[in-house]
Structure formats: C-alpha cells, structure tokens
Design a protein that fits this description.
Largest sheet of chain A: none
Largest sheet of chain B: none
Distance between the termini of chain B: 30 Å
Number of helices of chain A: 9
Oligomer: heterodimer
Shape of chain B: globular
Number of strands of chain A: 0
Radius of gyration of chain A: 18 Å
Number of strands of chain B: 0
Structural class of chain B: mainly alpha
Order of helices and strands of chain B: HHHHHH
Helix content of chain B: over 70%
Strand content of chain B: under 5%
Distance between the termini of chain A: 26 Å
Structural class of chain A: mainly alpha
Number of helices of chain B: 6
Helix content of chain A: over 70%
Radius of gyration of chain B: 19 Å
C-alpha cells in the first residue's frame, strides 16, 4: 500500500514537472538527428544500417536517460523531503522500489519514442520486431533504472551533482548494454526475441541482481 | 611497534621486487620469437594479478564498512581502489606496448583487452566518486559504489566472452602451457608473488595515510 502511494507520488511529480521525460525525449530527438546526419554522410547500405542501428539507438538512450535522471532526486533532497519520508516510517527499500518503477515507466516511454524516431530518420523497418523490441526495452530500462536510481542517490549531494552520475554509472552498467545491443541486433535480424540466447539470461540476471543490490544498499546511500 | 613491522615489511618487499627485476632482466634468456619485448610479460601478468587482488580487497573492505562502520575499513577501501587503479593502468600500458610489438597495433576489440579497459574505467569511476562526492558522506557512498564495482568485474569478464571472438588475439600462455623453458615459469611465478606482496604493502601504507587523514579531518571540522 505504501509502495502504491509512493509510486503515485513519484509519477505525479513527473507528470506535473515532466523533467525526466522532456529531457530524455528532447535529447533523444536531437542526438538522433545528429547521428542520422553522420550516418547519412557515410552512405551505408540497408544491411549495414541495421547493423549499426542497435548500438546507436542504445547509445542515444544511455546519454539521454543519464542526463534526464541526473537531477531527478533534486526534488527529494530540497527541504529534506527524503528525511521527512524516513521519519514518517517509510523504509528505504520502499522509497527505492517506487522510484525504480516510476523511473522505468517514464524512461521506457522515452526510449521507445527515441528508438522509433531514429528508425524513422534512418528508414529502418521496426514493425516486424516491435513486440521483441518492446520486451527488450522494458527489461533493459528496468535494469538501468534499478542501478541508476541507486547511484543517483550517491551523486545527489556531491559538488558535481548530475555530472558525476555518468562517470560512475557507465563503467558498471556496460554489461547491460552489451546484452541490449546484441538482443536488439538479433531481434531486427530474425523478427523475434532470441529466447535461447545467453544474452537474454544475462539481461534478466542483471535486472534481478541490480534490483536486489538497490534494495539492500539504498538505505546506506540516503540515510545520514 | 606497528611502525617497526611496517619498516621490516618495506625492506622485505624492496628486496623481493629487486630480485624479481634481477630475474627478469638478467637471469631469464631472450625469448626466441619475440626477443627482449617478451620481458614485459612478467610485469604485465603480475600487475593483472595485483589488480584482481585489489578488487577482492575492495569488495571485502566495502562490505565490512557497511556492516561495522569502522573507519579503518573505509581506509582499506580507499587504498584498494587507488592501488588497483595504478596496477590496472600498468596492465593497460604494458599490454599496449607489448601489443604494438607483437600485433603492430596498440588496441584491438578483443575480450581480455576490453574487460581490462572496463576494469580501468570502473577504478576511474571510484576515484571520481572519492574526489567529487559529498565529503561528509564519502565513506558510505564509496562503500556502496565499491560493492557494485567489485561485483561488476566478474560480470564484465563473463559478458565480454559472449561477444563474437573473431579477433581473439590474446595469448593464453599459462592454460596452453606455452612456457616450456623452466626459468620462464619460475620467474613468472616469483614475479607474481613479489608484486602481490608489493600490492599488500601499498594497500597497508595507503590505509595508514587514510586513517591519519580521517583523524585530522575530525579535529578540524571545517577542513584545511
């Protein structure tokens, strides 16, 4: 029940401010245009284009989402709002789970819009593989949110704020994006999710590990 | 008394490393194919072992700090991340010099090279966290990141091996029993042991400095 209330609160804050969503979609659009321009000058043929598409699409997501999430905890640190929640008897794992799910929802929406825009600009047909791409995006975005939400709490009070997040997040989240790129590539090639791929097991395993780490370490990250 | 042990250990490690240098540059004959460049191999492998030892120490120290909140454990985790960063840099630079001599290229997208590159980036992230993180919360925040970073290392090593190994170039000397000459083998294992003791000494020294630093900052709350 507390989880639902917290999730509602986090989504309401996002709905009113639209900070994470606007930054993620806006940056995705701008980066997609720059990437499409760069690729256009290289005159790649369609198979080459669909070979580079997954890496570029996920690179755009990493950049846009990391910038978007960098300031997402500021509403909580201002006026000691997060301490208020802790004093009210809400446990850190509950705060953490609500944040992970609300961030996942917003970022997943942003990621799907960003990927479709890039596909539109590069004339890549995603319609054959849309269900597989949706599932891969949901799994990757959940794992990303699970780790990024935890690490955002470490950066919230640093002198660099959101700028520190990519420096500490990108090296540790690399395996998640290796599997995202490989699975997206396989989905575009075969039009379905490769269920027997070791990358899928790695992706699901990482989602579980990151979420469990977050549940156990979020308290140490936010408590004074 | 503590200083006495430290001084004795320093003399012991100095002699051990000096003997390792004697073995590498004077005792071991030139390798038939590669010539003198092959001597980099002894430093390279020993530094890689030292980097992995630092990761293990980092994990244990971070977990113990989160469990006990003892300042000395925070000191050990600072020491392990900095010493690991130095040895990881030595692995990258010596590997690149060797790679340029053997393959005529400094870097290839090859599993072991990439996994060490990510290990180096992870250590860089840890250093940035210490440098730019919130000073009043540095021990907790660094311990949280230390646990995540240390657990990421085996995942990166595993996930890199799933990548297509079309460019598999790195020699697997020990598993393939490529060291036929007994003096090569004994020098390699002796150098590994000597550098491991050097790693232990450096972590000990850096821990002592970190503990003194934390004592000083407690006396001067405004910093200085």
């Amino acid at each position: 029940m507390i989880f639902v209330t917290l999730l509602r609160k986090d989504l309401l804050i996002e709905l009113r401010g639209r900070e994470v969503f606007a930054v993620t979609v806006g940056l995705s659009l701008m980066l997609a245009v720059v990437a499409a321009f760069g690729i256009g000058t290289a005159f790649l043929n369609p198979p080459q284009l669909s070979a580079v598409f997954p890496a570029i699409a996920w690179l755009i997501f990493i950049f846009a989402a990391t910038v978007g999430l960098g300031r997402s905890l500021e509403a909580e640190t201002q006026d000691a709002a997060i301490e208020g929640l802790l004093v009210a008897g809400v446990s850190p794992p509950q705060i953490y789970s609500a944040k992970v799910f609300s961030n996942s929802l917003v970022l997943c929406l942003g990621q799907l819009i960003g990927m479709c825009l890039l596909a539109l600009l590069l004339a890549i047909n995603l319609s054959d593989a849309w269900s597989a791409l949706f599932l891969i995006s949901a799994l990757v975005v959940f794992g990303y949110s699970a780790l990024a939400t935890l690490l955002t709490a470490l950066c919230a009070t640093s002198s660099l704020r959101g700028v520190l997040l990519p420096l500490i997040l990108l090296p540790v989240i690399a395996p998640l994006f290796f599997s995202a790129i490989e699975l997206t590539h396989e989905a575009l090639e075969n039009g379905r999710l490769a269920l027997d791929s070791p990358w899928l097991s790695l992706l699901v395993g990482l989602d579980v590990v990151y979420f469990l780490l977050g549940l156990n370490l979020y308290g140490a990250a936010i408590k004074e | 008394m503590k200083n006495r042990y430290f001084e004795l250990s320093t003399v012991f490690v100095f002699l051990a490393v000096a003997l390792a240098n004697y073995l590498i540059f004077i005792y071991v004959p030139n390798e038939r194919v590669m010539g003198p460049v092959q001597r980099i191999f002894y430093f390279h492998v020993a530094a890689a072992v030292a980097a992995y030892i630092s990761v293990a120490v980092l994990l244990i120290a971070s977990l113990s700090y989160l469990a006990t909140r003892k300042p000395v454990m925070d000191g050990v985790s600072v020491a392990a991340s900095e010493v690991g960063f130095v040895f990881c840099s030595i692995v990258m630079v010596s590997g690149m010099i060797w790679g340029h001599a053997a393959w005529n290229t400094f870097f290839r997208w090859e599993p072991r090279l990439v996994s060490f590159l990510f290990l180096w980036l992870i250590f860089l992230g840890l250093t940035c966290m210490r440098r730019f993180g919130d000073p009043s919360r540095a021990p907790e925040h660094s311990a949280v990141l230390g646990v995540i970073a240390a657990l990421t290392v085996p995942v990166v090593v595993y996930s890199i091996q799933l990548l297509p190994q079309t460019a598999q170039l790195h020699p697997v000397v020990v598993e393939n029993r490529g060291l036929k000459e007994p003096s090569f083998q004994s020098t390699l294992f002796y150098t590994m042991a000597a550098v491991a003791t050097l790693t232990g000494l450096l972590i000990w020294l850096r821990t002592r400095i970190a503990v003194l630093e934390s004592k000083r900052s407690k006396r001067q709350p405004t910093g200085g």
